[in-house]
Sequence to fold (617 residues):
Amino acid sequence: MNLYTPELVEIKDIIEETPDIRTLKLQFKDPERMKNFEFKAGQFAEYSVFGEGECTFCIASSPTRPEYLECSFKYAGKVTNAMTKLNIGDTMGLRGPYGNSFPIEQMKGKNVVFIAGGIGLAPVRCIIWNVLDLRDQFKDITIIYGARTVGDLVYKNELEDWKQMSGVKTVVTVDPGGETQDWKGEVGFVPTIVEKVAPASKDTVAIICGPPIMIKYTFPVLEKLGFEEENVITTLENRMKCGLGKCGRCNIGSVYVCKDGPVFSYKELKDLPQEY
Amino acid sequence: MEELIISTENFKKIVKELQEKEFRVIGIPEGENKYQEITVEKELSLNSEAAPAGSSFKEYFFPKSEPIFFYKQNNGSVDLFDPIEDKKGIVVIGAKPCDASAMPIISKVFNWDYKDDLFNKRYDSSLIIGMSCHYKDDYCFCVSTKGSPENTKGSDVFLTTLENNYFKVATITPKGEAFVKEYGKHFEKDEKKHNPVERKEAIPEHFNYEKVKTWLDNNFENKFWDTAGEMCLGCAQCAFVCPTCHCFDLVDEQCGSCEGRRAKNWDACQFSLFTKHASGHNPRDNQEKRYRQRISHKFKYYMDKFDDILCTGCGRCARGCPVSLDILQVVEEINAFAEKS
Fold:
């Protein structure tokens, strides 16, 4: 065993979220490992399909719900394509957890706004459940989630659960043209809806994850609403192989996304070269 | 410790003893230009006037391709197997300072925080015998990168060329000391007081690496980068011959329908696929950006992280570049900007 060798996990359940997004519920083959595996919201892992390779995703389940490790992924390349063909009971590899995490301790006692687009809800979902499972330690919670079309929304049941929760404001939107006739949510791009919802910025941490274009246009909206740069937190997803700060490809200037990230504040991002 | 010397002939005897003890002896054979395993047929050459070998000896510690594990699949279940270790210790003999000094530089990457045992098992059990260098061409610039032709960094034992095929022996590390003790009968006191072989020509300091670093700190966006790497073909020969480049890929190599291996293979930042996301997005989407990465990693990013330069000034990347893109000229240009600003 060396540091690049994954541990074996078994697929316990598969949820077809959308036509091109899947969630896998995984458990370590070794039950003891399942018990002692610890991670923090925001950390990522390397998932293996043997014969195809590895790919990198944030762990999508919350550390407060340790029964399964979950990952949600969109079909995009060789390994994710292979992952769409796996079945319940199949074995995969997992290395991790790696990287830093969301600053949950600093978020305690504050309002939290979660903003996500498309598959970007996966890493945010991890911290959403983490926060909701410790509900009394946080103030107001707002969730703003958007996808291109109604069919592209992920975690549909959980979106309904969050809507029903008291003390949680959940706003779901689809891009213009992506709505169905019976769609009851918002229609509009995520930055527009953030501006419309206008969450209070005082004593508030915003966690934002989604396509680069969504993040790019949401940052100025949050600035306008008065959010402080250090209270706007996002995750980056530069291409990685090792996840351990060695293989050399995920750096942005002197920063390794796999080691110093993947979680960065808007303030930290502003100090980095524009190469992500 | 008293000063010891050794003759070339006696060194060859040590090589023979090492081979008998089943060490892998790596050096440059007579008439060759590549570090390789010294065998009975390929006798070791200890020529301090030789040009640097075509590539460094890093591949004996960080191979071009090595298995991480083997897998066998059967109806959805998987078994993993560790690769068989080559337990033979490696002894590198006659390493140029620009090659030996690269080893601690690579080792820092493989050992900060997480430890890469694939590298460490080979490196920790190795012995590196460096040798002073009397070569100079237009591509050499070790003096500008904290080095010199007599730099002992990375060597356990260091040989300095004396007259009449003798070497002065310096022990640099405890490992080196143990080696000299173990093979003590081949070493002798310098009773005849052999003179050192003088260098014909000194290697000048071409640039000030601290000034270069300061310029790089402030010029990620600069029109200089639009043309600096313009010629680069993205072939990455520079990375493959470089003693300090250490980037790699992890690749599954299927063999038949249900078994194969995952390999750690050399990779390079000059390839367009290196940073390309599955989505198609590529943070370094042109050769100019990739060339900026190469220069910046060597003279700024690595320094920020490990307080050293990711370059030993061996000049190989330029000697072998198919379009004659010369790192020394590029860094000299940066140095000139730094001096003006």
Remarks:
- The CA atoms of residues 275 and 281 of chain B lie 9 Å apart.
- Chain B touches chain A through 51 residues (CB under 8 Å).
- The radius of gyration of chain B is 22 Å.
